[in-house]
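Researcher: Re-running this chain for the archive, since the previous output was lost when a drive failed. Same request as before.
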Amino acid sequence: MVPQPKPPQRPSTPENKARYTLAIAIAVIALLLLGGSAIWATNLLRGQPGQGSAATSTPSTSHSAAATPNVNPTGPISPLIFGTNMGLFNDHDQVLQSDQTRTLMQQLHIKIVRVPARNNITSDVFIQALQDIKQVGAVPLVVLNGVQSPDTMLSSDITTVKDVQSVFGDTTVYYEFGNEDDYHGVPVAQYTAGWNTVIPQLKKLSPHANFIGPVSWQYDEPYLISFLQNAKVQPDEISWHEYTCDLKWSNDTCLNNLDKWTTHISAARKAMATTIGKVLPIMITEWNYTASQSTQSNGQPIDDGKYNDEQFMTQWTTKALQTLADNRVFASMQYTVTDTALPMITYNQDITTQGTAFQTLYQKMFPSGS
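Model: Regenerated structure tokens:
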């Protein structure tokens, strides 16, 4: 707020001096009785228009504090940290095929499901996946085609948005532009150019939706800053992925590396505050202890001494979710609920150790179930 000029003084005559003295006396009384109205009363007796105290004072300390981005947010924990990924590698996805799986997803209290709009999946199958997400009481985060498919990204993304609208209408849904494009060698300038081409048109098509970038495979501050500086449409949230170790690394290393998540989240908030003058909500849209696990020919994960160690999986998953909660991350998604080496629900319809830890911590954080 810019301070306004003080009211002009009248000529210094005896009559005016007496009136002025009387005005000051009344103003003092008014100050004691009415606080901030004193200046208004003084100006009124001077024959000037009434003005609030803000008109003649410098900005208050509280106003300055409110304008400073909060890089250490507090407040309620977001239930959207209890999210997961749906693989949807083909139309045989377990979530699509099993009522029991969807029932277990409800019991796990999954609140947001990240689902890819894959080119090998028909619109009918994709819409079924969206309907299943809606059935379990979750909201979707849809992975749009990014710049790795430059010839079709706009047309395919428009089709995807229309499919989502056919299920969720005008309710708030979330879209990520691309998936780990940086991992696949896409320069940030190319990614941002694609964002600037596609996202403005999708926002017109779906004004209630939130659009998220840059979806990095790991926290990459220079990539994030360049994206924020050059995005013509600011993202509603930012996102990246977090894993902590390789298969051969020790259990302790996997656990200790969770502390880096706090470092990354803090750094991202400071980078946003410096770059765009505000702090956007953060989404960690893939997380698990490793990205290196895979299913062997016998149908079992690689024996890394971790996935089948109940104590480790419980401790690691609990600390991961607690870290996200403590840092007030807006949303996060475990990788994955089914159909990979590290599911929360097995093909035999059992909740895994990681799924149990996920469920237990949700019930601890939200005992009322809200």
